[in-house]
Amino acid sequence: MATTKEASVKKAPAKKAAPKSDVPAEAKLRIRVRAYEHKILDLSVKQIMDTANRFDAKIVGPVPLPTEIKRWTVNRSTFVHKDAREQFEMRIHKRLIDILNPNPKVIEALTNLNLPSGVTIDVKMT
Which of the chain's ends, N or C, has fewer CB atoms near its CB within 10 Å? Predict the structure, then answer.
């Protein structure tokens, strides 16, 4: 008769389920801010952080993400002069802010912010 390890291993007692609430215990609000100009981006991030600090929220960041650079090369002339070209580029600067365990007042204050044009915000609840 062969004995197996499975028979001798005791099972751990089942954990009780935590009561369900609207916000998980380790909720996190992840905000990604994007803009073409870094000065406007930094002012917007400062405004977001000031708003979160006003409600005593714990903040991680801002974390600078890699700048996305898009480049194009275009002929200066329409028909001849292939060697004469112009190069253009567009830079997209990005920042990441995490707000740990946000309360509803923080979320409401962040949705009512007036940020400058050209600033894009992506908000995710994780």
Answer: N
- CA–CA distance, 57 with 52 (Å, rounded to integer): 5
- d(CA 53, CA 46) in angstroms, rounded, equals 10
Interatomic CA distance for residues 126 and 30, integer angstroms: 7
The single-letter DSSP state of residue 105 is H
Q: How many domains does the chain have?
A: 1
pLDDT (tens digit per residue) in 6-32: 555 566 566 555 555 454 557 889 999
Tell me, yes or no, if the pTM score tops 0.85: no
Rounded CA-CA distance 102/107 in Å is: 7
Token pair in block for residue 90: 């567009």
Type of residue found at 81: H
